[in-house]
Specification:
heterotrimer, A mainly alpha, B mainly alpha, C alpha+beta, A: mainly alpha, 61% helix, C: alpha+beta, Four Helix Bundle (Hemerythrin (Met), subunit A), 58% helix, elongated
């Protein structure tokens, strides 16, 4: 039986479907939709816009780093007119566009916040998860479609609040994306600030909306994966992408709320004058502050990093899931070590809750508690290595097709490898005493999220674009996007390891011995200032995204039309029409086999879809089993 | 284990439960009464000195945990609940105790006393 | 397009969707209040001796509120049971009782407990001046008993203007009972029945005061934590009440279409309500009794 005859894409049937339910108006269909695919695309487009915005903030910062104390050309004048002299002022020669330290700090804090919470989480988790997961498990939609819509709307409101914060007196939050107290408690307060409409308070309020959005989304994802798997879609037949999203959802569900409680407390500190995070005897600008005291700045750090650490696994797991799908598809063989991958993802999720204080090595914790966290942090590197190794081994003996998604997915592997391996010195509190808050840390985590997750996101966009639109993005422009991006990523972040080891401090606008060291002669190149080539690479990388943006929008109408399964993939989403109708499948699909049955021996095609029933004489692919499977 | 399980909904299960519910009503009232009694008890015990502040706190927490357990087990039907829910709650319990205990440990064990 | 398992259970998990959803949500709520409780632990452990007060909250009222919430937990599960037994009138009766209990709880908190706090005054005495106010504080006695010192004088502030007017040099405080007889052993542990400020007047020099405010969140770490936790809890009570009102008013429509569906929804809302009760079961002893 051909799998296609089960799929719901008989065109006449389509028309009847559409006439049966009354056509929804524009707003109900595209703005206030409860359809997981529309919501996924909403998250995707909003998230990509925010990613680009966060990137622009960084490009501005790179000017100050490369040419400290000079005015930002062209844009500097415009920004000064829009944001006022608190953000940018005239330089010594009277040219407008010189960044103030406060503005630099707000660029840094908002770059981090926007990239993580308005960029990667919405795109990698919410966008891809929403669009792909119900299709891959054979469900008609998420379990709670209205809650899904509310989740996006909460995200949207949070995003708007974050953006608005740039335009209030005093500008956006500037205490780092980590908002450490007591600085964050007392910042943006005073006679020139509004009690609510100031950068830091708006950051806190916006964050509450973003957390609410993630919590609602997490509930939906987990319930959907548990309850709406199609007949035959057992746990161990799920594509690894679904497992990755499942674990990610649990991380969001259980790790975000303590941060939400801390944010409520910081809001109380700022608005109600409490001292949750303000210690007794605090002196600000030479004067003792009139507060009750008795609070603890470290309490904020504990509650923040309780989320903060699982958050980094939230950032990488969906990317790993995407890469898994694309590698299996483009090597034309099953993923190696499916069972190990699943177990590693579960263990990674569990351990991520008990490693957080490795972000706090410099806070004066004693040897017992430090030894505990150092041990768990060392252990948590193991599942990450297992996952990466499984991906590498999956390439062995494959018939590799370097499609555009595969280019990005393959590049992910060594890039994430560098990022992960460079984290290991940071896991040891003794080594971290030197490296903490230097550019080494920045290089480490950017290698993971930038040429790591963001490359996985690009791979996912190119890969699932045909499912969402029925057309392929241009391969040529995909390659034009890929190669400069890969080169620039390394040109930007590799030297940062060096800068960090030289002692260059992060978050500093200017000055300091580390800064001087970083600008001094390096490897015999006198007067060579690493910040300059890094900044140039960053700007070139900005340019390299333009082909992607154009390709993305242009291909909606003019991309090469393709059938429902252009990549000849095996998972359930490729049995549905492109794009799938509301309800996805006219008859609920049935899964008869695992997700990666490529190159089954004795078959004409080198791929066998999950919906294809097992033939009596078929040579069976050994299926992984675990006691969890039902 | 690899046979696709049936996904047709189980109709009769709900009616079965309805018959059991009437038996449970008396149970709910008794548990309610027990909770009220233990509330009075915990107030009374708070005026008894058990030696140290730590001991007083421990006694109060034991009573509170017992009350909470009754609410969870009987009112929230955990006694009859499915494995999956227990699994979710076990992990939640592990992580919330991890939060309490490790934060406490970090406070308890500073570099310089 | 229908989502399967909204009302009937999926065979292999034995659950319908909203039940999975609400338990997941409650797991996140456990972590939320867990964060607040860990703040309580951290701040209380960190507090200097004498800076974490006892006996400032109204225990009888707190006990009564606890009883009301427990009663509402009973009534909501009886409402659900009535629906399962298809007794719609009984469901409405118990649901109305539940809503009433929730409203009383909030009313007592917002119109009685909290305002009573906002009306109460406390002045932290400077360490250098503690000796001067020993007749009110009785620290020698406390020290000999191995108890933590008193560093604050509380009561009813007679001259409110003193809070804002720098020209007024002292606070006139109608002392709380404990300061009128500080060396009496009976005063070492707080009493059950709440006794308000006495008529005995004490004049406290502003120069001797570290910090003086009414009992508002900014007064101390204790009140910051108390108001934040009970405030957030109160918001959850309010949310629950709103959901119940909706189910009380519009439940009939769902009941006529599919009574089991309404029973499920009431069960889900009831689970949330029980959780709110659960949190209060811990809040009550931690703040009112210990």
């Amino acid at each position: 039986m051909d799998a296609h005859s089960h799929a719901a894409h008989d065109p006449h049937h389509h028309h009847d479907e559409a006439h049966e339910h009354h056509e929804l108006g524009f707003f109900r269909k595209y703005v206030f939709s409860t359809d997981h695919k529309v919501i996924g695309l909403q998250y995707l487009v909003s998230g990509l816009i925010f990613l680009f915005l966060g990137f622009c903030l960084m490009m501005l910062m790179r000017w100050q780093l490369a040419y400290p104390g000079t005015s930002v050309p062209v844009i500097g004048k415009i920004l000064q007119n829009v944001l006022g002299p608190g953000a940018l002022t005239n330089d010594g020669a009277g040219h407008p566009g010189l960044m103030t330290p406060e503005f630099y700090n707000s660029l840094g804090a908002m770059h981090g916040t926007i990239m993580i919470f308005l960029g990667i989480v919405p795109v990698a988790f919410a966008a891809f998860g929403n669009f792909v997961v119900p299709l891959q498990i054979g469900a008609p939609d998420m379990t709670f479609p209205k809650v899904n819509m509310a989740s996006y709307q909460a995200f949207f409101v949070g995003g708007v609040i974050m953006l608005v914060s740039f335009f209030v007196p005093g500008g956006a939050a500037k205490g780092g994306w980590t908002s450490y107290t007591p600085l964050a408690d007392i910042a943006d307060q005073g006679p020139t600030y509004h009690v609510i409409f100031n950068g830091q308070t708006l950051w806190l309020i916006g964050f509450i909306f973003l957390i609410t959005s993630s919590l609602l989304g997490a509930v939906n994802f987990i319930a959907t994966i548990i309850q709406l798997r199609a007949k035959g879609m057992t746990w161990m037949r799920l594509p690894f992408f679904v497992w990755a999203q499942f674990v990610t959802a649990f991380l969001l569900l259980l790790a975000f709320p303590p941060l939400e409680s801390a944010i409520v407390m910081q809001l109380m500190d700022r608005v109600a004058g409490t001292s949750f995070f303000l210690p007794s005897g605090l002196v600000v600008n030479g004067a003792q502050v009139s507060i009750s005291g008795g609070g603890s700045p470290l309490l904020w750090q504990h509650l923040f990093w309780f989320l903060g650490h699982p958050e980094v696994y939230v950032l990488i797991l969906p990317g790993m899931g995407i890469v898994a799908e694309i590698i299996a598809n483009n090597t034309r063989k099953p993923l190696w070590g499916y069972k190990s991958l699943v177990l590693a993802a579960l263990v990674l999720g569990f351990l991520s809750f008990i490693v957080w204080a490795h972000h706090m090595w410099l806070t004066g914790m004693g040897t017992v508690v430090s030894a505990f966290f150092q041990t768990t942090t060392m252990i948590i590197s193991i599942p990450s290595v297992i996952i990466l190794s499984a991906f590498f081994i999956s390439l062995w003996g494959g018939s590799i097709r370097f499609t555009v998604p595969m280019l990005f997915a393959t590049a992910f592997l060594p890039m994430f490898g560098i990022g992960g391996l460079t984290g290991i010195p940071l896991a040891f509190n003794s080594a971290d005493l030197y490296l903490h808050d230097t550019y080494y840390v920045i290089a480490h985590f950017h290698y993971i999220v930038a040429p790591g997750t963001i490359f996985a996101v690009f791979a996912g966009v190119y890969y699932w674009y045909p499912k969402a639109t029925g057309r392929k993005m241009s391969d040529f422009w995909g390659k034009v996007h890929f190669w400069p991006s890969l080169i620039c990523m390394n040109a930007i972040f590799l030297p940062m390891f060096l800068q960090g080891m030289l002692g260059m401090h992060r978050r500093w606008y200017d000055g300091g011995q580390g800064w001087t060291l970083a600008t001094e002669k390096v490897w015999g190149l006198s007067g060579f200032h690493w910040n300059t080539p890094i900044s140039i690479a960053a700007w070139v990388m900005g340019l390299a995204q333009i082909p992607f943006i154009i390709n993305f929008f242009w291909s909606i109408r003019h991309g090469e039309k393709v059938d429902d399964n252009p990549w000849e993939a095996t998972t359930l989403e490729w049995t549905a029409p492109s794009p799938p109708p509301h309800g996805n499948f006219t008859t609920p699909p049935v899964a008869y086999r695992g997700p990666y049955e490529y190159s089954l021996p004795g078959r004409a095609k080198d791929y066998t879809m999950q919906t294809e029933p097992v033939q009596p004489d078929e040579r069976k692919m050994p299926e992984p089993t675990m006691s969890l499977s039902h | 284990m690899n046979n696709p399980p049936t996904t047709e909904p189980v109709e009769h299960e709900t009616e079965h439960y309805a018959h059991d519910v009437s038996k449970h009503v008396r149970g709910y009232l008794m548990v309610g009464g027990t909770l009220l009694f233990f509330t009075a008890l915990t107030v009374f015990l708070s005026y008894v000195n058990f030696g140290s502040q730590k001991a007083n706190v421990a006694v109060a927490m034991v009573v509170a945990t017992f009350k909470a357990g009754l609410v969870a087990y009987i009112f929230m039907h955990l006694s009859a609940e499915k494995k999956l829910i227990y699994r979710i709650l076990i992990f939640t319990a592990i992580f919330v105790f991890g939060l309490f205990w490790l934060t406490y440990l970090a406070w308890y064990d500073p570099v310089v006393h | 397009m229908e989502i399967p398992y909204t009302v009937t259970a999926r065979p292999d998990t034995g659950l319908w969707n909203a039940k999975v959803g609400i338990w997941l949500f409650l797991a996140s709520e456990v972590m939320l209040f867990g964060g607040l409780f860990s703040a309580y632990i951290f701040l209380r452990l960190d507090a200097q001796p004498g800076f974490w007060p006892h006996g400032l909250l109204n225990v009888p009222v707190g006990t009564m509120n606890t009883a009301i919430l427990i009663a509402s937990s009973v009534t909501v599960v009886l409402a659900w049971a009535a629906l399962k037994m298809r007794q719609y009138a009984k469901y409405k009766f118990y649901m109305a009782l539940t809503i009433l209990c929730g409203v009383i709880f909030l009313f007592v908190k917002l119109y009685f407990e909290w305002p009573q706090k906002f009306d109460h005054f406390g002045a932290y005495i400077k360490p250098s001046a503690l000796e001067k106010y020993e007749p009110y504080l009785g620290n020698k006695h406390l020290l000999s008993e191995g108890l933590p010192p008193r560093v604050e004088i509380t009561g009813h502030l007679h001259n409110h203007e003193a809070l804002h007017d720098p020209k007024i040099k002292e606070y006139e405080v109608g002392l709380d009972p404990i300061y009128t007889d500080p060396t009496n052993k009976e005063m070492d542990r707080p009493h059950f029945l709440y006794v308000g400020p006495t008529e005995k007047l004490a004049k406290i020099d502003k120069a001797d005061v570290e910090r003086a405010t009414m009992f508002v969140p900014s007064h101390s770490a204790f009140f910051a934590t108390y108001f934040t936790i009970t405030g957030l809890h109160g918001l959850h009570v309010l949310g629950g009440v709103i959901v119940f009102v909706y189910m009380f008013l519009f439940g009939g429509i769902i009941y006529r279409q599919n009574p089991e569906h309404l029973a499920n929804r009431v069960e889900v809302a009831g689970l949330f309500w029980h959780f709110v009760d659960l949190v209060w079961i811990f809040v009550f002893p931690l703040f009112y009794l210990l």
